[in-house]
Amino acid sequence: MSHRQPVRVVDRHAFDTIIDARSPAEFALDRIPGAINCPVLDDEERHIVGTVYVQTGAFEARRIGGAMVAANIARHLRDTLADRPEKWKPLVYCWRGGMRSGSMVTWLRLVGWDAQQLAGGYKSFRRHVISQLDALTPRLDLRVVCGATGSAKTRVLHALAARGEQVLDLEDFAHHKGSLLGSLPGVAQPSQKHFETRIATVLEGIDLQRPLYVEGESIRIGRLSLPLSLVAKMRAAPCIEVVATPEARLAYLLRDYAYLGDDRAALAGQLGLLKELQGKETVARWQQWAHEAQLPLLFAELMALHYDPHYEKSQERHFKTWAARRRVAAADLGDQGIEALADAVRALEDDASPSA
């Protein structure tokens, strides 16, 4: 057999399929983008093998685990992998590039496929993500889109992406809108590792000579933390402020957060977190409105008393170039208004170019 070179993370795009041989729980926490999960041990089996290893020793763990691994690989060959052609070339990984992926590669090669094992497994991919974030972030040509709560910043990013601009949608990756009421109903946030994986994946495909638009976020989005290198880059980057009228913002918030009226108790519970900042009396009034689904009254006061008073100071504190920010105005944040904002943001770039 010819000598095979170890397959590194940067070589992964040369394969037809990437197979994650780890357990479903490990896969859910984080994985290589595009990988399919074909566990050689499920979560319970992995726990059983680990317990046997501790209590009885390595040989007994391998004997019991080996039978489980063989049964699972047989099932994958019958089901998930049954339709793969003769020239199919998969890359298989597990936690460290050890026995789990090695077992699967052995069987896939016996079938006749050119299966390869990722050297170092998921751990090597995780190191790659961290090094990519640290290496690429300082080189980004960021444009930070800012604006008071309800300024439709995320929708503006989507409209920019539809026009072919480069966009980093952190709130999409975080499954959270970034504000106190930003958690999405029925949608859990991903793990910190998977959040970072999605950011690194976008950065790998970025043209560093072109601007990358990102929303002005705080250090945390829900329970997730932005990579420190990205925070530092955002803090120093040029800012573009969406300046929308209070009326337009309120109308937008009522559309964008309409689902909050579906679970009134949960909304009231979230508002309770503001007692120290806003006082019991104010928060009690807001909670009453939440229970009555009086969202227009609630959001109008949240804007006037909670979000807006702190907005300017926090922007000045967070963004070094805030005083030199460029502005785009909007009296309407409906579909047409957002399209117009995206065009206005792009026009700023044209105005700033040397040929303008």
Give structural notes.
This protein has helices at 24-29, 43-55, 58-78, 99-111, 121-136, 153-162, 170-174, 192-204, 228-236, 246-256, 264-271, 275-278, 280-291, 295-318, 335-352; strands at residues 17-20, 36-37, 90-93, 116-117, 142-146, 166-168, 212-215, 220-221, 224-225, 239-244, 326-330. β8 and β9 (224-225) form a beta hairpin. The chain has 2 domains: 9-129, Rhodanese-like domain (Oxidized Rhodanese, domain 1); 140-352, Rossmann fold (3-Layer(aba) Sandwich). The protein is 51% helix and 11% strand. It has a 5-stranded parallel sheet, sandwiched between helices. It has a 4-stranded parallel sheet with strand order 2-1-3-4, with helices on one face. Strands 8-9 form a two-stranded antiparallel sheet. α10 (246-256) packs across α14 (295-318) and α11 (264-271) packs antiparallel against α13 (280-291). With 356 residues, it is α/β, with parallel strands linked by helices.
Report Rg: 25 Å
Q: Give the amount of beta strand, in percent.
A: 5-15%
**Overall domain count:** 2
Mean pLDDT score: 93
* Number of E strands: 11
What's the CATH class label of the largest domain? Alpha Beta
- N-to-C order of helices and strands: EHEHHEHEHEHEHHEEEHEHHHHHEH
Largest sheet: 5 strands, parallel
